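User: Fold this; tokens only.

Assistant: Input:
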Amino acid sequence: MKQFYITSKNIQQDTDEDCYLAPDDPVHELKITSYMGGLGSTTKLEELRIRNTIEKINNVRTNRRS
């Protein structure tokens, strides 16, 4: 991960080392709730936990079939 030092110079951020978050990354949903002052954040976190649990269950089922 990059570290930026704050100076009076312009910082070039467009490099090959830039990181990218996938559009389906849950961080995007959490950022939206934080922009809303936390409204609905509890619900979003619960939905995220449920989705993660379902994914884990499906992965276990898939691995058992293999």
